[in-house]
From TrEMBL:
Residues 179-199 are annotated as: Disordered. It comes from the Bacteria. Residues 183-192 have a biased composition (Polar residues). GO terms for molecular function: transferase activity. This is Transferase hexapeptide repeat family protein.
Length: 199
């Protein structure tokens, strides 16, 4: 669902994928290969939202702002299920974990990882490459090279998703039984703990 508001029409690059059950309103700019999942609310009614190339905003996220401000997700920002970004700037190649909350005028430096359920209060500045957890948030260490590679690989999986969805997503009726020849999906990515175990 794409809506104009107060004279502003969202701009969505043709390679991006906005799920039909997401809502994009008003002064929003969405770049190349961006994935916007179902239930996401990208609400550019009181200010601007810029989602740069290769970002993903997953299911049930909210992106909004205090009136007259800009919310920006820089290239390859990875916003996990249920997160809220309210008037923050999220740096390049950052991971924001599931159900994390970033408040007004927060600045997240490049290559940070924000843990699931973290809360970052208004006006906080998080230095680049910080690993952040907790409510209230705490910087516990620097993001290692291996952890950053893991994050980047995960974002590359999401960067491919828009093209795959454009090519194959379609409404359908459900099957009533599991077919005997139902194919098995191949794992394309590992959790951080699985990766550490194999290292």
């Amino acid at each position: 669902m794409i809506y104009s508001f107060n004279g502003f029409i969202p701009v969505v690059h043709e390679s991006a994928f906005v799920h039909p059950q997401a809502t994009v309103t008003g002064n929003v700019i969405i770049g190349r290969n961006v994935y916007i999942g179902p239930g996401a609310a990208i609400r550019g009614d009181w200010g601007q939202i810029i989602i740069e190339d290769n970002c993903n905003v997953q299911e049930n996220c909210t992106v909004h702002m205090f009136p007259g401000t800009t919310t920006r997700l820089k290239e390859m920002a990875h916003i996990g299920h249920g997160a809220i970004i309210h008037g923050a700037t999220v740096g390049r190649n950052v991971l924001v974990g599931m159900n994390a909350v970033l408040m007004d005028r927060v600045e997240i430096g490049d290559e940070c990882i924000i843990g699931a359920l973290s809360f970052i209060k208004a006006d906080e500045v998080i230095p680049p490459r910080s690993l952040v957890v907790g409510n209230p948030h705490k910087i516990i260490r620097q993001v290692s090279d291996d952890m950053l590679r893991w994050k980047t690989e995960g974002t590359h999986v999401y960067m491919q998703l828009p093209a795959d969805l454009h090519a194959t997503l379609q409404p359908c009726e459900p099957l009533r039984e599991v077919p005997a020849d139902r194919q098995v999906q191949q794992a394309s990515y590992q959790t951080w703990n699985e990766r550490k175990t194999e290292s």
